[in-house]
Design a protein that fits this description.
The structure holds two protein chains of two kinds. By secondary structure, chain A is mainly beta. Chain A has no helices and twelve strands. In chain A, the strands form three sheets. In chain A, strands 2, 5, 6, 10, 11 and 12 form a six-stranded mixed beta sheet that branches. Chain A has a four-stranded antiparallel beta sheet with strand order 3-9-8-7, with no helix packed on it. A two-stranded antiparallel sheet of chain A has the order 1-4. The chains are: A mainly beta, B mainly beta.
């Protein structure tokens, strides 16, 4: 069965620090990968997605993610975080029927 | 434009009661998904509609859960004989699929969810 692992449960950073959130998936075929973000009190929003092509994907708000097929990874990065990036981040892979399979999420707290 | 809406935003019920949760997808979106998010977990898939039919209901935990989408737009998730373990946030998402090899490849847009609490 497909699954997604997010290894960091809670990450605490100071403003301007660099961010990398880990995501590993288990699926041997063609993958579609996503990062969603949930800001406090808001609904899930798409940050970025990978379907094919360039493995380095750029999303909104300065986020990017790199698909590394050999490592089954799709880590999320941002060079310099802001207080407004405080949120919960979810990695997901598309399942065989089109549904999304999510990781457990990583809470990011950015200290001003 | 309007996004996915869900009502009610909060629902408190007693164990054993019946509840209905409603989802209004983005206009024109033919694909609709229900997910459940328990505390400390990511969303877990429940059921997927393509138009009026349930294309995949493999995520429904048991026969107390049922969902309908009679006109291919609004969907209702129905839970019978609620249990305390059903307490969670129920999320709905819709997409406008560009089918590729039979798979929905488009982005899913999520609603705000319904927080269900079973006492």
């Amino acid at each position: 069965a497909q699954s997604v692992s997010q290894h960091n449960h809670h990450v605490i950073l100071s403003e301007a620090a660099s961010l990398e959130l880990g995501c590993n998936y288990s699926y041997g075929g063609t993958v579609n990968l996503f990062w969603y973000v949930q800001y406090p009190g808001q609904h899930l929003q798409l940050l970025l997605k990978y379907f094919s092509g360039d493995p380095l994907v750029k999303g909104i708000k300065g986020f990017e993610a790199e698909f590394i097929k050999s490592k089954f990874s799709f880590n999320l990065r941002k060079p310099s975080v802001q207080w407004s990036d405080t949120a919960e981040y979810f990695c997901a892979v598309r399942g065989s029927q089109g549904n999304l399979i999510f990781g457990k999420g990583t809470k990011l707290s950015v200290k001003p | 434009g309007a996004g996915v809406s869900q009502t009610p935003s909060n629902k408190v019920t007693e164990k054993g009661k019946y509840v209905e949760l409603r989802c209004d997808p983005i206009s024109g979106h033919t694909a609709l998904y229900w997910y459940r998010q328990s505390l400390g977990q990511g969303p877990e898939f429940l059921i997927y509609f393509q138009g009026t039919g349930a294309a995949d209901d493999s995520g429904l935990p048991n026969d107390r859960f049922f969902a309908v989408r009679p006109e291919g737009s609004v969907s209702t998730l129905k839970i019978q004989r609620t249990e305390r373990g059903d307490s969670a946030v129920y999320l709905c998402a819709s997409s406008s699929p560009r089918l590729a090899g039979g798979r929905d490849t488009d982005t899913q847009y999520f609603g705000p969810g319904t927080r269900l609490t079973v006492l």
